[in-house]
Each structure stands twice: as structure tokens, then as C-alpha cells.
Design goal:
10 helices, about 20% strand
Length: about 325
């Protein structure tokens, strides 16, 4: 695949990219070698951009996949790796950077982000972590820094932050999971924020084109919407199987039939306990009473009752509901 420059950085990435979260312990929990083999397969097929995070605990997959590859700066085929940290302080971010370098056996990290930046005062409260990223970029340990976010207001604000190189926002045609301040946001609002970042020279790569899997049945429509947005340099897609790599590449190179509809009959609704805030919106919305409170006061799904209708996903304020 033809690579595209990520904003004004010196990083060139494929227009579709591989999100490693899916294969990790919170979702498919693939064995180490199986996950590493899947990443190597994607690299061999031409994908060069991979996203992970400290929180995902997926560094070992990338470490094993990258073993034996030529890591010299002269090798244009060595993958671009993005990772993220939820920490707020300088010390937390420094520990996260050192962990990423160690666990993936890297000398330099291409992209390091503040993970899931929310509305004010979250940005100001994480000033220490942001300063740490700036310092490590100045040392040459990180090549580009920025934020990942589900928020329109945060995305728009990054257009005004000179030190921010890249932004990783959530967007999909159904506005699933998009936030704006304390309330829901729309895809149209996020489009405008993305355009502002692009106009400011920021690299933009998008997440959740399928709304956590809830829009997978509209595979071509969902990817068309995000990949064709002005200002989006690459679209990150969660992958857990080789056939998903093949399908994504077929879409990118134009060989996937335009009427393609994937079989999602085997997929199930899951609620990520790490994201769920126990607000109860999904419990109230479920038409079949398939969602209940677990012993920790968080939402959980009864698969024997769930219809996989997806009605719960749009009302979740933190995109904790996924389909895989």
C-alpha cells in the first residue's frame, strides 16, 4: 500500500492500520506466538502502522513480531509503532516510556500519546505527563507526541497546541462513543475538529470506525466514511484474525466487493469493565433485559438472553460496549 505522511512529522504510514487491543487479554486473549504471527502476517501483507497502549498489555506480541527485523533508520519497512499511557504525572509517564522501550525492545518509539484525554480539567491535570513526553521527544527517544481522545472539544483544542504532533480521535458515521464536553458529540462536530487539526499541520489517525464492532455489518459504509474524511491520514482498525487483515487490505486496494457484508452471527456483545462507569444507561436501554449489574456494580451481559441488537451501544457515554 502507498504510505501517507502523518501530518508534518517524518512518519509515513499506510492508510489503514492495525489496532493490537483486539488480540489482548481484554478481548480475544490470543496466545503469544499466535498474536505475534498475526502481526508479522499483517506486516508481510503491507500494513506498517500499529497501535498499542500500556493499558492493553499487548507489548509482548509486538516484541515477538519485530524480532529479527532490520531496525536501522535506513529500513523503510520497519513498522511505525504508536503507544499510549493513561498516567497524569511526569513520573507515571516516564515509567510508561521506559516500560514500552523495554517490553518492545525498542530504542525509539515513533508515537507516544496521552491516552483518552477527556474534557477540562483532564488536560490541565495531566500537564506533568505532557511535559515528560515533550522532554523525551527532545532527547530523541520519541519521534512524535499527541493525544488519543473520544472528545470533540479535546480534538479541537489540540489544533491550538504547538507541541502536539498527532491526534488520534474517535469517529464513525453513527457518532457512537463521540463526546463533547459533558455530553454526547456528533460525527459532524468531530469532522470539523479533525479538519482544524489537519489545517494546523497535525497528523490525524482515526479510531473506532466500526463503533467498537457495533457497525461491522456496515463494513464498507463505515470504512468509506472515515477513510474519505478530509484530514484523516490513516484509519486504525482492531484486528484479531488473518482474514480480517486480508479483508482490510482488500478494501484498501479496491478489490473488496462494494456490497460485501460480513458474517457477524458469531459475535457477542461485551462490556469492558475497565471503561464501564456503572451509569446504568445500557441496563435501562436493553429491550430484552440482557444486561444486569455484576458484583462490582458494573454492567454485564447475559449472552443467553442477549439479542446482539446493539441498542445498548449508542447510550454508553464511555464506549465500554463492544461487539466481537
Amino acid at each position: 500500500m502507498k504510505k501517507q505522511r502523518l501530518g508534518t512529522t517524518d512518519l509515513y504510514v499506510t492508510p489503514v492500520a492495525f489496532g493490537v487491543l483486539t488480540m489482548g487479554g481484554s478481548q480475544m486473549d490470543l496466545p503469544l506466538e499466535e498474536g505475534a504471527e498475526l502481526i508479522r502476517y499483517a506486516i508481510d501483507q503491507g500494513i506498517n502502522f500499529f497501535d498499542t497502549a500500556q493499558y492493553y498489555e499487548t507489548y509482548p506480541y509486538l516484541r515477538e513480531a519485530l524480532k529479527g527485523m532490520d531496525r536501522s533508520p535506513e529500513n523503510p519497512d520497519f513498522p511505525v509503532i504508536c503507544t499510549k499511557c493513561l498516567g497524569s504525572t511526569y513520573e507515571e509517564m516516564e515509567d510508561a516510556i521506559e516500560e514500552a522501550l523495554r517490553e518492545m525492545e525498542l530504542d525509539v518509539i515513533d508515537i507516544f500519546l496521552l491516552h483518552e484525554v477527556r474534557q477540562d480539567p483532564d488536560w490541565d491535570m495531566r500537564a506533568g505527563a505532557w511535559q515528560c513526553l515533550q522532554d523525551y521527544k527532545a532527547k530523541g527517544v520519541i519521534r512524535a507526541i499527541g493525544v488519543s481522545t473520544h472528545h470533540v472539544d479535546v480534538t479541537a483544542r489540540m489544533a491550538q497546541i504547538p507541541e502536539c504532533d498527532v491526534v488520534f480521535p474517535l469517529i464513525n458515521f453513527a457518532s457512537l462513543g463521540i463526546r463533547n464536553g459533558d455530553g454526547p458529540g456528533t460525527c459532524q462536530e468531530m469532522e470539523a475538529a479533525i479538519q482544524a487539526c489537519h489545517d494546523a499541520g497535525k497528523g490525524v489517525f482515526a479510531m473506532k470506525a466500526f463503533g467498537g464492532g457495533n457497525l461491522t455489518a456496515d463494513y464498507v459504509k463505515a470504512l468509506d466514511y472515515v477513510t474519505r474524511l478530509p484530514g484523516v491520514d490513516s484509519t486504525m482498525v482492531g484486528i484479531g484474525k488473518k482474514e480480517e487483515v486480508d479483508r482490510l487490505i482488500a478494501y484498501a486496494d479496491g478489490t473488496l466487493p462494494r456490497d460485501y457484508v460480513p458474517d457477524i452471527s458469531h459475535k457477542r456483545i461485551h462490556i469492558d469493565a475497565g471503561d464501564c462507569e456503572g451509569c446504568g444507561a445500557c441496563v435501562q436501554r436493553c429491550p430484552n433485559k440482557a444486561i444486569h449489574w455484576n458484583e462490582y456494580g458494573l454492567a454485564a451481559v447475559d449472552d443467553e438472553v442477549c439479542l446482539t441488537c446493539g441498542y445498548c451501544a449508542p447510550v454508553c457515554p464511555v464506549r465500554a460496549i463492544i461487539l466481537f
